[in-house]
């Protein structure tokens, strides 16, 4: 079974000369999905508990029955749980949107900042950016925080017309490639999750070996089960389109993959027509399955949890 993304923020790389990559980093939103799901399940309970507590305590009884006393205790305990869940959700949303600690770790470990980042662009032709959309509450503290961070670091590619939400990851990926192709004239465009560490030199050497091929889709090619049961973690609403075998077609794992300029331009031109599925890696794979595209199963793009000989990436 392939590793699935839970709303991980991604980075984008654009490779212009020998190579040029745009790394983009998505936030982990599974925590917020989980907490939000629990809050949704308890929404009716909230209304009931509030009314029940008001009913019992508002009757003006001098002596309450044991049953009513237990109900009051239970109601108040449930209210505490719900309040705690709301706080968890707020924290999960902020972490999901921000993930500044991840970005700082990547800047320190392999991406670089300031003159180091500029030197990589000028000398190696590799442009690296974090890719982030906007808050659903446009102009709020989350948006201002990203704007302020970018004013200092100048390494964030902000998708102004995209609202960040876990379920919108496939559309975000599509919009990234479309806007990156319009913004940078590059040979390659790459997507990398922000929990992946990359050996840039090894990455560049790998792409340099493919330089004469115009329509490439490079990644750790996988397939896997299509989940048709609603409520399952990796549920696919369009499961019936994948046949009785319920197996996805071969596609590059979403942790890290690369497409060439011609394919990025194709996405840019046809973005309004390209269908998205529940997962961004499946969506991208579906766009190329009927085209004259060479799928390159590059095992070096299979990011494990630890560095191995010849590897160019490692998941965290």
Automatic annotation (TrEMBL):
Pathway: Protein modification; protein glycosylation. The chain crosses the membrane at residues 21-40. One of its GO terms (molecular function) is glycosyltransferase activity. Pfam families: DUF4094, Galactosyl_T. InterPro entries: DUF4094, Glyco_trans_31. Its EC number is 2.4.1.-. Its cofactor is Mn(2+). It is a single-pass type II membrane protein. Gene3D superfamilies: 3.90.550.50. It is found in: Golgi apparatus membrane. Keywords: Glycosyltransferase, Golgi apparatus, Manganese, Membrane, Signal-anchor, Transferase, Transmembrane, Transmembrane helix. Residues 17-94 form the DUF4094 domain. GO terms for cellular component: Golgi membrane. The keyword Transferase applies. It comes from the Eukaryota. Belongs to the glycosyltransferase 31 family. This is Hexosyltransferase. It comes from Salvia divinorum. The lineage of its organism: Eukaryota, Viridiplantae, Streptophyta, Embryophyta, Tracheophyta. The gene is HPTG1.
